[in-house]
């Protein structure tokens, strides 16, 4: 069976994956882009934007695993757009005409709408479904490839709570946000379900990889 994977998911030292005060011009609230500066410096990110350059060390190597073998993505309403996007029937996501996914993407929302076909192979489907049902739909669309769980933190937490995540790459950034949306709330003893490895890099971040223990 295909795996459910989380990649390049950045959190602060106090566990926040996004700050408070999200808005169209501030998708991560008061955190700004600080949680992701480690990734912006990598060759992986430069290539994603069609450019060249960028670092080629461990940050790049781990970030680049993001797309290998992925056939579909699941994301929450908060990743698809800022608060209030559901009130705009013409809203088509935050990535322009050619989003970077190039696969079917399942957006979890309590206000579903018709699917949107974009350039480059991305089609957004809107589901009001619990995690297990959403994963089943995404696996069907992935055609035997893995499914990426794109966030935000509440969505990742829900899938972790149901034991559905096979692999998770969390990047702990040396900053304290103090407020926002945390990843780990309610997941006491999560470490018992995973083998965990940690790698620190010169950029100052710590990469944590979680591999599910299967009985």
Task: List the topology elements.
Blueprint: E1 4-12, E2 16-18, H1 37-40, H2 43-48, H3 58-63, E3 70-76, H4 77-80, E4 104-108, E5 116-117, E6 123-127, H5 131-142, E7 146-149, H6 153-161, E8 167-173, E9 181-182, E10 194-200, E11 206-212
Parallel strand pairs: 1-7, 1-8, 3-4, 3-7, 4-6
Antiparallel strand pairs: 2-9, 5-6, 8-11, 10-11
Looking at this protein, list some descriptive labels.
globular, 9-stranded mixed beta sheet, alpha/beta, 215 residues, two-stranded antiparallel ribbon, Dihydrofolate Reductase, subunit A, single chain
Low-confidence runs: none
What name does the CATH topology carry? Dihydrofolate Reductase, subunit A
Number of helices: 6
Order of helices and strands: EEHHHEHEEEHEHEEEE
In CATH terms, the superfamily is Dihydrofolate Reductase, subunit A
Number of domains: 1
Helix content: 10-25%
Which band does the percent of strand residues land in? Answer: 25-35%
Description:
Pfam families: RibD_C. InterPro entries: DHFR-like_dom_sf, RibDG_C. One of its GO terms (molecular function) is 5-amino-6-(5-phosphoribosylamino)uracil reductase activity. By secondary structure, this protein is an alpha/beta fold. It has one domain: Dihydrofolate Reductase, subunit A. Helices cover 19% and strands 27% of the residues. The chain has 6 helices and 11 strands. It has helices spanning 37-40, 43-48, 58-63, 77-80, 131-142, 153-161; strands at residues 4-12, 16-18, 70-76, 104-108, 116-117, 123-127, 146-149, 167-173, 181-182, 194-200, 206-212. Strands 5-6-4-3-7-1-8-11-10 form a 9-stranded mixed β-sheet. A two-stranded antiparallel ribbon has the order 2-9. Helix 4 (77-80) links the parallel strand 3 (70-76) and strand 4 (104-108). The protein is globular, with a radius of gyration of 17 Å. The two termini are 15 Å apart. The mean pLDDT is 95.
């Amino acid at each position: 069976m295909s795996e459910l994977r989380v990649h390049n998911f950045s959190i602060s030292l106090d566990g926040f994956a996004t700050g408070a005060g999200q808005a169209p011009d501030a998708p991560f609230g008061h955190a700004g882009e600080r949680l992701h500066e480690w990734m912006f410096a990598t060759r992986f990110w430069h290539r994603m934007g069609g450019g060249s350059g960028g670092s080629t060390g461990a940050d790049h190597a781990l970030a680049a695993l993001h797309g290998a073998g992925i056939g579909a993505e699941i994301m929450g309403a908060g990743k698809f757009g800022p608060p209030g996007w559901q009130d705009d029937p013409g809203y088509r996501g935050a990535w322009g005409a050619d989003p970077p996914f190039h696969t079917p993407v399942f957006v979890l929302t309590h206000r579903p709408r018709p699917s949107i076909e974009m350039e480059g192979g991305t089609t957004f489907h809107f589901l009001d479904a619990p995690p297990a049902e959403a994963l089943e739909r995404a696996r069907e669309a992935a055609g035997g490839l893995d499914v990426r769980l794109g966030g935000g933190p509440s969505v990742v937490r829900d899938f972790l709570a149901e034991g559905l995540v096979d692999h998770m790459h969390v990047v702990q950034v040396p900053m304290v946000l103090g407020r926002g949306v945390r990843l780990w709330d309610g997941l006491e003893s999560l470490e018992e379900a995973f083998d965990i490895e940690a790698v620190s890099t010169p950029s100052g971040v710590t990469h944590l990889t979680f591999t599910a223990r299967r009985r």
